Amino acid sequence: MEHITLLLGIVIVTALVFDFTNGFHDTANAMATTISTGALKPKTAVAMSAVLNLVGAFLSVEVAKTISGGIINEDGLKTEVIFAALVGAILWNLLTWLLGLPSSSSHALFGGLIGAAVMSMGWSSVNGGTVVTKVLLPAVAAPLVAGIAATLATRLTYRISSRTDEKATSKGYRAGQIASAGLVSLAHGTNDAQKTMGIITLALITGGVLNPGANPPMWVIVSAGVAIALGTYLGGWRIIRTMGKGLTELAPPQGFAAQTSAATAILASSHIGFSLSTTQVCSGAVMGAGLGRKGGVVRWSTATRMFVAWGLTLPAAGLVGAGAELLTKQGTWGIATTAALLVGGSALIWSLSRRQPVDHTNVTADEIGTPGAGTAEPAGVVTTAIAAVTPPPAGPVTTGTGTSAVEGAAPAPSVADSARPATV
């Protein structure tokens, strides 16, 4: 600790800020379905998730090793490169949070790290094989696997419970949701908190405090776990709303199936060192559960916005990280300018979010009007056409002479009458 310089200290603090944003950005992964189905009250859900995120941070360091010694070559890497990478990741996290889009905090971090490293040392600084096998392939495969598993689990669940009383089984499924949500929170802490551990460890290696290939020190593990837990407790209510209400309407059996499938995928990936996006896994599981119920509907307009955000995350964070590195290369004034831009951009996004706040009091409301925050799916062409030809409600029956069949009622106007101009 005595060898930590001012710049290294700034990088560590910035990494913990990213970890904090990761916590409130990804709270929806664990608790959105539990909140939307009423299994837990919002504040209780995020408190439970925060505690289990903290516990999960101590279970493994495999993902941290992937980041600290796998994606970027450590030789010649400078501490300011890591700072620039974190700037790109934090700003992208905050922007997608403002829009209520469940994008990947993991890919924001990887994008920022790759962009900053390329700007500093060129493409040779990136281990392309590791990026493909442990980042890109899991990003494509994991949501598909979780979605298919959730679809099959939902169908199996409804088939098993088809002959039982729905009210009686819903209580059991709500209890199952709470347990599976806890498992997702534990898995999230195991996977996502390690990413910050890996970044801090990488910074300590570049600063000469640790030897290459070293495991994260205990103080790094504790600080990363606490930061992500605090962020989780505050709750990313905008994204919780999108995940819980914006993608599909979930019943307790579907929520249980979605969360169990997601937790299984995340824990398996953490065990083998895949730096998985918990956001993508949980989103895929929610959509799969929505499709698994007969008559279930996925709101594809929301899903499309989410897919676009997924695709943009890596390159967008990379561009911001590269721009930040271009500034930090200029010396002290460049680092100070980058820090000022980070603080100013974060403050601007926060002030914009206060115009239409979403919190635990209105997260389950049907309409808020927040962009991307789970507003109702707009009517399509077919729905509009059907509504246009729907006959009006039946009125009083008229006789052939034009008099009303109901005594005292005025006769209904004929088409010819309505076509005549009004007279004074």
Briefly note the structural class of the backbone: mainly alpha
Helix content: 55-70%
Estimate what percentage of residues fall within beta strands: under 5%
Oligomer: single chain
Number of strands: 0
C-alpha end-to-end distance: 93 Å
Indicate the mean pLDDT.
Answer: 76
Q: How can the largest sheet be summarized?
A: none
**Regions with pLDDT < 50 over 5+ consecutive residues?**
368-424
Task: Using the CA coordinates, give the radius of gyration.
Answer: 26 Å
Write a concise keyword list for the protein shown above.
424 residues; mainly alpha; 15 helices; disordered C terminus
Describe this protein's structure:
This protein has 424 residues and is mainly alpha-helical. The protein has one domain. Helix content is 70%, strand content 0%. It has helices at 6-36, 42-56, 62-71, 79-99, 105-121, 128-160, 166-206, 218-234, 237-246, 252-272, 278-292, 300-328, 332-353, 381-389, 415-419. α4 (79-99) runs antiparallel to α12 (300-328) and α6 runs antiparallel to α10. It starts with 5 loop residues before the first helix and ends in a 5-residue tail after the last helix. Residues 368-424 have low confidence and may be disordered.
